[in-house]
Here is the input.
Amino acid sequence: MFTGIVEELGEITAVENLPDASRFRLRGPVVTEGVGHGDSIAVNGVCLTVVEHEGDEFTADVMAETLNRSSLGALAVGSRVNLERPTSVGARLGGHIVQGHVDAVGTIVAREPSENWEIVKVSLPAGLSRYVVEKGSITVDGVSLTVVDAGPDYFTISLIPTTLALTTLGIKQPGDPVNLEVDIIAKYVERLLGGRATGSVQAQEATQ
Here is the structure.
């Protein structure tokens, strides 16, 4: 479990293409401190398992399903990535509950800079708009952000200088893909209410 508070900007140092997967080697001095085999690290919002580690680098295998459902397949040697270790029980929840399970890939549509922040518009794939609400939370490339405006096929976010400087969102340009994870709480609420509605209909039919 993560919180969407990026710890550092890492870098892809090697990519090995396998028949149905890819093996990435990544550099991240902060997240590799005390890391062990089998630990989890979020890479651009995708929860990956550490296979090997040496010094300030670690390797992770990315299955075909993950490559197809996220933007990790577009990464190459030299690509910068957002890195975050899992949160610990009792730690402060600085962002929101993030699973590291990408729902879809969006695209940076436009950037509107201002003196103290930058408004970024991101495309929203079909089927996700019902989970995105104004002032709600969304994860973009592993960064926990507040939705400024929510449309039927887009949303906007406001990025402060710290986010621009310390995450990949400061260098992403219109046309670049980003990993999206909606608020898991919204999914559970929808599931529970859907079941209740179905149950109510069945109960009414049973009494007729």
Confidence is low (pLDDT under 50) at residues 198-208.
